[in-house]
Every structure is written in structure tokens, then in C-alpha cells.
TrEMBL record:
Organism: Tahibacter harae
Domain of life: Bacteria
Pfam families: adh_short_C2
Entries under SUPFAM superfamilies matching the protein: NAD(P)-binding Rossmann-fold domains
Record's signal peptide: none
Name of the protein: SDR family oxidoreductase
Amino acid sequence: MPTKTSTPDLRGKVAVVTGASRGAGRGIAAELGAAGATVYVTGRSMRAQPAPGYAQILALSGLEQLPGSIEDTAEEVGRLGGRGVAVRCDHTREDEVRALFARVQREQGRLDVLVNNAWGGHEAFDGVFEAPFWEHPAHQWEAMFEHGVRNHWLASRCAAPQLVQAGRGLILTTTFWDRGRYLRGNLLYDLAKASMTRLAFGMAQELRPHGVASIALSPGWMRTEFVLLGHKTDEAHWRERPALARTESPRYLGRAVAALAADPQVLARSGDVLRVADLAREYGFTDIDGRQVEAFEL
């Protein structure tokens, strides 16, 4: 069993968190920063140039512009005690991903943690989650696989040589897992998340001999910006929405990431798919409101 702690120490460690402008990525970057890490915050959303491709979900949410940016997240990392470095990176482009990891090596001389979180599924969201697979539009395949699963594979492929050479490190892949249950009503989402879980497992087999761990990590139902907008509320008032009672903040996931990154025995867990709620009990951390939120189950 891991040693229980609520204050991981990641001073001197270097992490890359992909897709960290908002949501899960921002929560992860924030908690790595609170633990003292240097965090490269990547994504396409900048204050001066929001990411393209989100017109549909913006219209559904009643927004003119996406919430969050890589600069916002990097500044939050700094306020919490770490060092945030904002790097614009389109994770579908191999040249940009390679340049990102070359920059980390050049500037830091090390990489300790890669968190694969960049996800393109929101770009194709049409407001309908549950429907027969033959009724979901075909372009969702590209959003979830070419801009989702491939993003995780590509970043891992570019980071792995540094980690293997160092003989240590951790790759975490954010996914959703409910103990093998089918996510009824959205076959492509189910298939994409299962692919990410299998990706983490397969990488673990090849990385373990080199001292590098690969783990799939599943949060519960997070109160991301889009979830809060969908329920017409915000982080200060979500308790007024009974439908959100089972939700957790993205920082809960971030605390799981920080705990795993600080665990000297993390290699023993390589290849596993882990749930944030289970890790909260093992490591002794809570969500930002002091609760240990139970695992979300279908």
C-alpha cells in the first residue's frame, strides 16, 4: 500500500500536461504546481488566439469564446507554488509535439512526468451523448481518435526516449473506466476511452524494463467549465444543482496525479487502470471541499 500523504513534494520535478487550458488538464497542472513542480502547460487555447474548432459546443453553451487559456493555467501553477510554462502546441501535429519535448529537454535537462490529457472529443459534440451508434455523426470518429487517442500515443512516443534514457519517469493517461462496463449510448466514446486504457497498458509492458511507469487514470464526473455551463451554474453555486451532487472538481484528479508522481513505488502499479476515488483513500487526499468523493459508477 502507498504511504498516505496529503502533501506530495515534487520540487525539482518537471512535468508536461497536455490539453491544460481548462478542465481536467488545468486541475492536474494546478496540483502539480502546488506540489512544487515545474509544469509545461500545453494546448491550443491562448488569450490572444483561442483554439479553433469549438463553434458547435460554444453555441450549445451560449458562449462567444472558450473559457481558459494555457497562460491562465501557467499563472495558476505559479500562484500555487510551482513554475508554469505555457507552450502552444497542437497535439495532432507531430512536428509541434517533437518541438515541445525538445524544448523541455533543452530548458530543463529532464522530464519526470507526462500527463496525456489532450482530447478532441468536445470539438464534435452536438449536444447528444446517448444515441444508437448508427445515429451518431461519422465525424466524431476523427475527433475522438485522430484528435484524442492519437494525441496520447504521439506525445508518449515523443517523450519516451527521454524517460527511457533517464531510467525513470511516469506517463499518466487520463481516461474513463467503469470496471469494463459499456458506456451505453455512445459507442465511439466508449471505444476511444477503452483504447486509451489499452494504450497505457501496452506502453507499460515495453517501458517497465527501463524503469518507466505507464498508468491509466480515471476520474469521476468532473465539474469542468463545460459541465457547469451545461447546468447553468458555476463553481461557487454548483451545490444548488442536485444533479451535480455526485461531481468532483478537476483538482481531485490533480491530487491523484501528484500523489502518484511522488510515490517512489509507482512502478509497481505500471499497467494498471486506477480510479481517483480509490487513490484518495489510499493516499489520504481530499477534493478541494474536503470530501473524499465516491467513485462515479454507471
